[in-house]
């Protein structure tokens, strides 16, 4: 998939993502955790978290809604960017940080993070591809190795607020 066709997907989903993030923030996580993604090839009960990272250049706070999975107490997110040839900004910003904040429904955490490798990565990829089947198409559409991030909560924090961004 070219960056242009990935941009079309992101444009369609961009309004959804912004609206989704705003609803999640406005309700303190009461709404936005579970979303029906059947119309884009996902499942009716797809779970979403919010992640919060600081811009590595701008220093501005970014909050993004992302599909997540839970494997053995670690929360997994996928840096797919709709199969674009470039990594999402949040992933590049995360790589410059030792930790990350995330929120699931009405609970938020500071967490450490890591990228699984080898056999573990394959197992995690298979799990996340079942959680959201379009990830398979996204990976086939780019030569970029789509990163997986595994987050381990270390401390509870206050839920995210609209004023955070």
From TrEMBL:
InterPro entries: F420H2_quin_Rdtase, Split_barrel_FMN-bd. This is Deazaflavin-dependent oxidoreductase (Nitroreductase family). It catalyses: oxidized coenzyme F420-(gamma-L-Glu)(n) + a quinol + H(+) = reduced coenzyme F420-(gamma-L-Glu)(n) + a quinone. It comes from the Bacteria. Coiled coil: none annotated. Belongs to the F420H(2)-dependent quinone reductase family. One of its GO terms (cellular component) is plasma membrane. NCBIfam families: hi_GC_TIGR00026. It comes from Mycolicibacterium moriokaense. Pfam families: F420H2_quin_red. GO terms for molecular function: coenzyme F420 binding; oxidoreductase activity.
């Amino acid at each position: 998939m070219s960056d242009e066709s990935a941009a079309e997907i992101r444009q369609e989903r961009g309004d959804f993502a912004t609206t989704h993030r705003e609803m999640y923030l406005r309700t303190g996580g009461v709404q936005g955790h579970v979303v029906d993604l059947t119309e884009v090839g996902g499942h009716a009960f797809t779970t979403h978290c919010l992640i919060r990272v600081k811009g590595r250049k701008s220093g501005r706070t970014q909050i993004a809604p992302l599909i997540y999975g839970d494997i053995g107490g670690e929360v997994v997110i996928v840096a797919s960017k709709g199969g674009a040839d470039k990594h999402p900004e949040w992933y590049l910003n995360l790589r410059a940080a030792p930790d990350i904040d995330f929120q699931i429904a009405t609970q938020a955490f500071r967490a450490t993070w890591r990228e699984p490798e080898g056999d573990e990565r394959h197992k995690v990829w298979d799990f996340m591809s079942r959680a959201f089947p379009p990830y398979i198409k996204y990976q086939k559409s780019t030569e970029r190795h789509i990163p997986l991030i595994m987050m381990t909560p270390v401390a509870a924090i206050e839920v995210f607020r609209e004023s955070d961004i």
